[in-house]
Design brief:
The complex is a heterodimer. By secondary structure, chain A is an alpha+beta fold. Chain A has helices at residues 51-58, 97-104, 109-112, 120-129, 220-230; strands spanning 2-8, 13-18, 22-28, 35-41, 68-70, 76-83, 142-144, 148-150, 156-158, 168-173, 177-182, 199-205. The model of chain A has no long low-confidence stretch (mean pLDDT 97). By secondary structure, chain B is α+β, with helices and mostly antiparallel strands. In chain B, a hairpin with a 2-residue loop joins strand 4 (49-55) and strand 5 (58-62). The relative contact order of chain B is 0.34. Classes of the chains: A alpha+beta, B alpha+beta.
């Protein structure tokens, strides 16, 4: 059952606290979406998404269905339960004001009102401030809908046209999670016109993943991170 | 930088203003001034040196792996790499590298991540993040867990495949291999000499490293 729906316009940011065992569905409403995201334990935000811990536990440099996003305390924050793309980026980071100006041209609020060219760094700082958080809390983020491949020699390449319209990724929260989101271009996106891709967010009721859950069984590490998350609610 | 840019340093250990051995499982948290050079030596080979930097004048500016790898367009670091901060500014530049493989993606081991990666009963094994936390608390510098993002693992081999896989492989480092970097600003250098016993990053045998600083 859908509990709530919101659409993030291009350049927008949002933060929302989602109780555990809800499904958060992100939908790209046009091709070429990028949604930069930070996740925190909503009760104790010092316990936060740790990209390296997640990647090394899963032996992956991309994120897709079955993967469990983990905190630095070893807890499952959210499990990726559906994914039409097969690849979301945990490597590229997020874009700042100087990078937006260099790639897409500066477009101030004075010039364009709410069509101005916003950047993920400032958006994160604004949303974090609403929760008493700030720069110190910005660690490695993930970029939903984007793909950065790494060649054998280590070189990174942004894959343009990775995300078609209507691409969907669903996360099931495993503890109470604070999502901090910025619908801003990927920092490796090609220069030119500032991408204008709205992203819809649906919050749905959900069930806990049982013993036969795809994510729980994806790797033994996923099951152990879920067990550590469950210990928060003893 | 994508692959090893082999470069030996002209600096002599006899001229170093600081030379210290860090035993496996121990930490080091010291200032390195602008234009000073820091060398980390893998004394016995196949050892991971978990290393992180803060701007000494403003500790909210700190090493950022994502900014470092994105700005140079490659995940491996070697001679010529600029280690970037979370404000996308260079903090240090790697000036010599005789090893050629250093990890930017894996971060530090922690008792909690050991539980996830290996078994829930691994909680009580020593881990790098505990060393980092103790060093930060004892240092008197205004930094806490909140300020800790993910670090470089010098001498550690974590290849990524074009299909998006990530592997932990035997180190390519050997006794005496080193990496050297020049500070572009005054930094605080936080090191944990990794005590990990569960994977091949230290060849299951953690060993000492040496840290030297030159003016």
């Amino acid at each position: 059952m859908t509990l709530f729906t919101e659409t993030l316009p291009p350049g927008a940011m949002w933060s929302i606290r989602i109780p555990r065992h809800r499904t958060v569905r992100f939908t790209a409403l046009a091709a070429g979406a990028n949604l930069s995201a930070l996740l925190f334990n909503a009760v104790q935000p010092l316990d936060r998404l740790n990209v390296p811990d997640t990647l090394k536990a899963l032996h992956t440099a991309k994120l897709t269905r079955g993967h469990v996003l983990m905190s630095d305390m070893g807890r499952a924050l959210a499990s990726i339960t559906e994914d039409t793309l097969g690849w979301h980026d945990p490597l590229g980071g997020h874009i700042n004001a100087a990078q937006v100006a260099a790639k897409f041209g500066e477009q101030t609020y004075q010039d364009a009102h709410n069509d101005w060219h916003r950047n993920a760094r400032d958006n994160f700082l604004i949303e974090l401030a609403k929760h008493g958080l700030g720069l110190r809390d910005i660690v490695a983020n993930i970029n939903f809908f984007s793909k950065v491949v790494v060649a054998e020699d280590g070189r990174m390449a942004y894959v343009a046209e990775h995300c078609p319209a209507a691409a969907v990724i669903e996360l099931r929260t495993e503890i109470d999670v604070l999502f901090v989101l910025a619908n801003c271009p990927h920092p490796l996106a090609p220069s030119g016109k500032y991408p204008k891709v709205p992203v819809r967010i649906d919050i749905l009721s959900s069930e806990p993943g049982g013993s036969d859950d795809f994510c729980r069984n994806f790797r033994p590490e996923c099951g152990r991170a879920l067990a550590l998350a469950e210990r928060l609610y003893l | 930088m994508s692959t090893l840019v082999y470069n030996e340093s002209p600096l002599s250990p006899a001229d170093a203003i600081r030379s210290e051995i860090i035993l496996a499982g121990d930490g080091w948290f010291q200032p390195v001034k602008k234009d000073q050079t820091l060398r980390i030596v893998d004394l016995e080979g196949n050892q991971a040196a978990d290393t992180f930097f803060f701007n000494a004048d403003d500790v909210t500016e700190r090493y950022s792996a994502q900014d470092t790898i994105r700005e140079q367009g490659a995940i491996y670091i070697t001679t010529g790499t600029k280690l970037m901060s979370n404000h996308c500014r260079p903090m240090l530049t790697i000036t010599a590298d005789t090893c050629g493989r250093h990890d930017t993606l894996g971060g530090a081991c922690a008792s909690e991540s050991n539980m996830v990666r290996y078994a829930l009963d691994k909680r009580f094994m020593h881990a790098c993040r505990d060393t980092f936390l103790l060093q930060m608390v004892l240092s008197g510098y205004p930094v806490t867990k909140r300020d800790l993002a993910h670090n470089i693992n010098f001498f550690m081999n974590v290849p990524v495949t074009p299909e998006g896989g990530l592997k932990f492989e035997d180190g390519v480092s050997e006794p005496g291999k080193y990496v050297e970097m020049k500070a572009e600003v005054d930094v605080l250098c936080l090191i944990s000499n990794c005590p990990q016993l569960n994977n091949p990053c230290n060849a299951y045998n953690p060993t000492p490293i040496q840290v030297l600083v030159w003016n």
